[in-house]
Amino acid sequence: MKKMLNRVPEITLVFWIIKVLATTVGETAADYLSVTLNLGLSATSYIMSGILLIVLLNQFRLKRYIPLSYWIVVVLMSITGTLITDRLVDELKVSLMTTTVIFSVSLLVVFALWYSNEKTLAMHSINTAKRELFYWVAILFTFALGTATGDLLAEALKLGYTQSALIFGASIAVITVSYYYFRMNAVLAFWLAYILTRPLGASIGDLLSQPASNGGFGLGTVGTSMLFLSIITSLVIYLSLKQKKSVSLPINSQH
User: Where, by residue number, does the polypeptide cross the bilayer (predicted)?
Assistant: First the structure.
């Protein structure tokens, strides 16, 4: 398999900020399209899946990490993953517990196949088309799993959005401490945190967008989505300018 430049970003604080914001947008945008615009889960799922396929094909066409392309895929993955879970629960009447188990097993299978083929799950090793394919399949399942887990705690177990967000936030904090102070495996720490940021983002999205009668802040799906999309756009522009500057430095240094 022909190797390429690394196709994914470095794991920095900005990466995690955009990731949480993207997961929140996935939750609120999916609700906006299917409920507020009354497109329905089926139509919304088909539309978003088609758009996701187009941007994914463009992503595979690129030869290196491009912030705009990468984060557009992540946002669309978040929306599509949310819709997959919502369709299973709302249309097919699969319980949230069952859905959580299904996606947990599916994700483990993806990781097992990925590792058996490539002998690594590390982010910095996404430098072939095959590895990138495994990567994006895993990402999609983390979003679907995170949606199911977030709804399971907040709704099925009736913990509410605030308590659910605190639980997931505390879990991520434990992983962070374990990595920095107790030498937790870096790849394991990354994927555990990546999985948990999805239900954290979903809980935050529900907390902000849901009306006060449902335990939310009442900002609505439109307000929450637009606010977070604006922040994501600003950060992606920053990353794009930073990347452009770093690429041009070696050229300028020759003069």
Answer: 32-56, 68-84, 96-114, 134-154, 160-181, 188-205, 217-241
Provide the residue count of the chain: 255
Handedness of CA 111, 193, 145, 133 (dihedral sign): negative
Write the CB contacts of 185 (distance below 8 Å, at least 6 apart in sequence): none
What is the per-residue pLDDT across 153-162, written as a single tens digit (0 to 9) for each? 888 888 887 8
Where are the chain's structural domains? Answer: 13-245
- Do 140 and 18 touch, CB atoms closer than 8 A? no
- pLDDT-derived band at 252, boundaries 50, 70, 90: very low
Question: Which residues, at least 6 apart from 254, have a Cβ–Cβ distance to it below 8 Å?
Answer: none
Q: What is the mean pLDDT of residues 207-232?
A: 82
Q: Is 118 exposed, middle or buried (0-12, 13-18, 19+ CB in 10 A)?
A: middle
Mean pLDDT of 222-231: 87
How many Å apart are CA 195 and CA 151, to the nearest integer?
14
Which one, of 81, 83, 128, lies nearest residue 106 by Cα? Answer: 81
Q: Is the pTM of this model over 0.90?
A: no
